[in-house]
C-alpha cells in the first residue's frame, strides 16, 4: 500500500499547458537582487496545468509591481522545486499543504481542518527551513469521487455515506474507474471502503483501471458509474459530473499557497502576492484550468486575464 497522505504531485490530472521558458541564462544569478528599485524573482513550478496557471498569476503580479521575473515553470515535482527554493535557485513556487505535510515534513498524522494543517505546515517550514507560506487558496485540490449523473440520481446518492448505505444494502453491481495508484493508495480506494464501513463488500465492486485523464469521460459515458478524480479538474464541469460529498471527511487536504524564503520577503511583496488568493475558489480554478486544457489558451494569458478582470493589474 502507498502510505496514507502521500501523493505523486505529477498525477494531478490536468493536462500540460506550460508557458515558454524565458531568460534561463539568468535563472540562477542574482535572485532577488535589487534592480532599479525592483527585485529579481525566479519563479518555478510543477509540471501540470494548475501549477502553470498559479505560477503565472504570481509572475504577472510581480511584474506589474515593478519586479523582474525569470520563468522556470515546469521545473519538476515537489522535490525539485523545494530543493531549488532552498538552494537559492528559485524564489517562489506553489505547494500544496497535504503534499508538504506528508512528503516534505514526513508527517503521517491526519489533519482534517484546512486552517490547522496550513498553520502547522507554515510553522514547521519557518522553523526548519526559513520558508514562508503565503495565504492559501479557498480551493482544495483533493481527491473526489464523481458519478454518472443519471445513475447517482436514480439511486439517490449525494454523499459517500449514501454510497456506503447503498453498498451495504447489497448493491455492488457497479464499476468504479481509477488509475492503478488510486486503487492501491490507503488515502484513496485502498482505504475508503473500510473508512466508510463497507470494506467487507469492496471485493464485489468492479474496479476499471485507466489513466486518470480518461476517468471523467468514462463516467459520463456510463462505462463506469463512479470514478476517482481531482477537485479542480475542468472535466468535472465540462461533463456535468456530480461529486459525492466526503462527509467524514476521509480525503486529505491540498490547499496550495506560494512558498517564498523568509529573508526574501517584504511586506509589500506579501501583500502583492496575497491579494488575489481569496478569489481562487474551486469553481474559479476549474474555469482557469479549463481555459488551458480544453480551450487551448496559454497559461500566461489566462492568468493575466484573471487578474485584469478582477482589478489586480
TrEMBL record:
- Any Pfam family: OpuAC
Report the PROSITE patterns cross-referenced here.
PROKAR_LIPOPROTEIN
Give start-end of the signal peptide.
none
Per the record, the domain of life is Archaea
Entry-linked CDD domains:
PBP2_osmoprotectants
Show where the ABC-type glycine betaine transport system substrate-binding domain sits: 40-309
- Which InterPro entries has this protein been placed in? ABC_Gly_betaine_transp_sub-bd
What is the protein's name according to its record? Glycine betaine ABC transporter substrate-binding protein
**Species in which this protein is naturally found:** Halocatena marina
